[in-house]
Write a structure and sequence with these properties.
about 290 residues
Amino acid sequence: MYWHRLGRTLGRSGLVGATVKGPERLPGHLVADEKHTTLAGEEVYLAATAGGGCCLGLALAEKADQDELTRAYGVSRDGVRDLDPEYRPRTVNTDGWAATQAAWRALFQGATIILCFLHASLEIRERAKHLKETFDALRGRVWGAYHAPDARTFSQRLRRLREGAPKHIDKPIVREKVLSLCEEREAFALAYAHPGCPRTSNPVDRLLRRLDCHLSCTQQLHGKSAAAEQGLRGWALIHNFAPMCPWTVRETPELRSPAERLNGKRYHPDWLQNLLISASLGGDRRAPRNP
């Protein structure tokens, strides 16, 4: 309980304002996904947003529909707009869930929604991994298309994959998933118009895998939703400011955490002191009002 309350104390600060030091440091590309968990025994959905290597949003939604997800993802939208009222990401990478995509279109009109290629490939893997040599060849062609140098080559490789699927894939459910991936060719190809944007949801998936361990240790979420969200924000701030793995730290000893890399600086060599200094204003980065 002691550590839980300390985490909640950190979570009183705004996540974006405490992590990002100025509007010029806001990432131009975001990644979003949801996670199933429980709050006091009831199923809820955790809407997570990542960008620039940092967690920029964690909020709870009671349902996985557009209205609830728009409200949950709106927490991160409000945080970045406290820094820059005109902010709009160039791209947002999501899975194929329609409510998620609709929520981000409502929050940031004009932002390009990038469909996650990894989710589509995992659908194939789950149904074809027992096919051994056939699966190895199929996986090579799927990821060979992903690594195409330009949109034209990418489309050509997916067309060839679609044409060869009826001849070389005997299992109907596997063939269906391959054809489903090929039908999303245009949605995947949008990423080539935005160099540097994430084409998979890996940045937020890594975050959620670490959160899995935390939720397992705490036996999921408890108490009121506001208290649970405070605890989640406190965990996210620790994730942003704590040093990364030793191999990464050895490569860049002067910038050891995701927040330090995003901002290009730190206030104090000790990561916890750096976090406390960054959150000293409660994450409020707005300019003071005129008297």
